[in-house]
Design goal:
Number of helices: 13
Radius of gyration: 20 Å
Helix content: 25-40%
Structural class: alpha/beta
Order of helices and strands: HHEHEHHEHEHEHEHEHEHEHH
Largest sheet: 9 strands, parallel
C-alpha cells in the first residue's frame, strides 16, 4: 500500500505519470476483484430533508421557513419501497438530514405527531417496517452517531454509511464548506466509523473532493479510514465523490474538480486502501466511465430505476443496460450486489442481526452477489 510521503508527491501529476499511476491501481483492482464491476439496485428514501447542518454545497437540505422542509410519512415510505420492489430493487437507502429536531421546533413537532422524540427512532421504525413488509434490505445513512444510537439501529440495517468527506479541520472555519456544521467535525465523523467497527456493522464511507480541501487532506482522510478498517475490518466500500456546483448555494461559483483530479484521487485511494475494500465512484456525476474504471474502481454504488438522486437531483442515473454495455466494452461484466458485501454475509461473523441474516439465503447467490440479476427481470 502507498505510504503517506509517497502519496504527497503525486499531487498534480498528469500525462504519462498519471496513466502509470492509474495502471497500478487497475492492476490491484483486477487482482482482488477480477473482471467484475458491481452496483446495488436501490430505492432512495429521503426520510427528512431537514438538517441541523448548513453545508455550503448542499441543495438537499430544506428549512421549515422555506415551506419545503419535510418528513416522509410511513405510507409514503412504504409506497416508494414497494415501487422499488416491483422493479427488482434489493436496497432501501435511508438518507436524511442530521438531527433536525435539535435545531427546528417544526421538526420536533412533526416527529411528535409520528410518535417519536428523535429522528433516529423514526428511522428505526421505518427500517423495521421495510424488513417486515417488503423484500428489501435497509441501508441507513443517518450521519454522525454515538455508540448507543448505532447499536439501536444495527438490528434493522443490513449496512450503514456516512461520508467522512474530509478530515481537514480548516473546512469548519467561516466561509468554508463545513462552517456551522457541528456534525462535520472530523473527530466526530471518525468516531462514528470506530463505533461501527466496534459493533461489527458493514459500513460505507468516503471522501468528497473539490470542496476546498488540500491534496494532503485527501491523503490523510483516506489513511484515517484505512487505519480504522485495519483495526476492525468493517469498511466494505469507500466512495470518492466529486463536488458538483449547484445554483442557490454558497458554493455555486466554486470550481469543480476536473477528470484528471478524479483519476488521481481514485488511483490514490486504490493504492492507499486495503485491497479488500471496494472503491466506488458515482456514475451519474461523470459519464466517461472508462476513466473511472481505468483508475481502479470496482463498484458504481447504488443506482435506482425508480427514484432520483435526491442529493444531486440534476444528475440522472444512467440506464443500467447502457452502463452494462459500457462495462462490457471495457472488458468487465456488470453484476448486481446486495447492500451488504459478500464477505460480511456469514452469520457466524456477527455482522448481521439474525432476522437480517435469515433473508440472505433468498437474496444472495453462492458468490454473495444478488441471486436475481437485473437482466432476468
Amino acid at each position: 500500500m502507498l505510504k503517506r510521503n509517497e502519496a504527497l508527491q503525486l499531487e498534480g501529476i498528469t500525462g504519462p505519470d498519471l496513466f502509470s499511476l492509474c495502471q497500478s491501481a487497475g492492476l490491484i483492482r483486477d487482482k482482488h476483484f477480477g473482471k467484475v464491476l458491481t452496483y446495488s439496485r436501490k430505492v432512495f428514501i429521503p426520510l427528512t430533508n431537514m438538517c441541523r447542518d448548513t453545508c455550503g454545497y448542499c441543495t438537499f437540505v430544506k428549512t421549515p421557513k422555506s415551506g419545503e422542509g419535510n418528513i416522509m410519512l410511513p405510507s409514503e415510505v412504504l409506497e416508494t419501497v414497494l415501487k422499488g420492489q416491483k422493479q427488482g430493487c434489493k436496497e432501501a437507502l435511508f438518507s436524511l438530514g442530521e438531527k433536525p429536531e435539535a435545531r427546528y421546533r417544526y421538526a420536533k413537532d412533526k416527529l411528535a405527531m409520528l410518535g417519536h422524540d428523535a429522528m433516529l427512532d423514526y428511522v428505526r421504525e421505518q427500517a423495521q417496517a421495510v424488513l417486515e413488509k417488503t423484500n428489501l434490505l435497509p441501508h441507513i445513512n443517518a450521519g454522525a452517531m454515538n455508540l448507543e444510537e448505532m447499536r439501536a439501529l444495527k438490528p434493522v440495517a443490513a449496512s450503514m454509511g456516512m461520508m467522512i468527506e474530509s478530515t481537514g479541520k480548516h473546512l469548519m472555519k467561516k466561509g468554508q464548506a463545513h462552517f456551522a456544521c457541528p456534525d462535520k467535525e472530523p473527530e466526530i465523523r471518525l468516531n462514528t466509523l470506530k463505533y461501527a467497527g466496534q459493533l461489527d456493522i458493514p459500513f460505507t464511507t468516503g471522501i468528497l473532493i473539490g470542496i476546498g480541501e488540500t491534496w494532503q487532506d485527501r491523503i490523510d482522510s483516506l489513511l484515517a479510514i484505512n487505519q480504522i478498517h485495519q483495526e476492525y475490518g468493517h469498511i466494505q466500500e469507500v466512495i470518492v465523490q466529486n463536488f458538483r456546483a449547484k445554483a442557490d448555494t454558497e458554493m455555486a461559483n466554486h470550481p469543480e474538480p476536473n477528470l484528471d483530479d478524479m483519476r488521481r484521487t481514485l488511483a490514490l485511494a486504490r493504492l492507499i486502501l486495503d485491497p479488500s475494500i471496494s472503491l466506488q465512484a458515482p456514475p451519474n456525476l461523470e459519464e466517461r466511465y472508462g476513466s473511472y474504471v481505468s483508475a481502479g474502481i470496482n463498484d458504481w454504488g447504488g443506482i435506482s430505476p425508480v427514484t432520483q438522486d435526491f442529493i444531486n437531483p440534476e444528475r440522472a442515473w444512467p440506464q443500467i443496460d447502457s452502463l452494462a454495455d459500457a462495462c462490457r466494452g471495457l472488458g468487465y461484466e456488470l453484476k448486481e450486489r446486495l447492500t451488504v458485501y459478500p464477505q460480511y454475509l456469514d452469520e457466524k461473523q456477527g455482522y448481521l442481526d439474525p432476522a437480517l441474516a435469515s433473508k440472505m439465503p433468498y437474496l444472495a447467490a453462492q458468490n454473495g452477489l444478488a441471486a436475481e440479476q437485473w437482466k432476468n427481470l
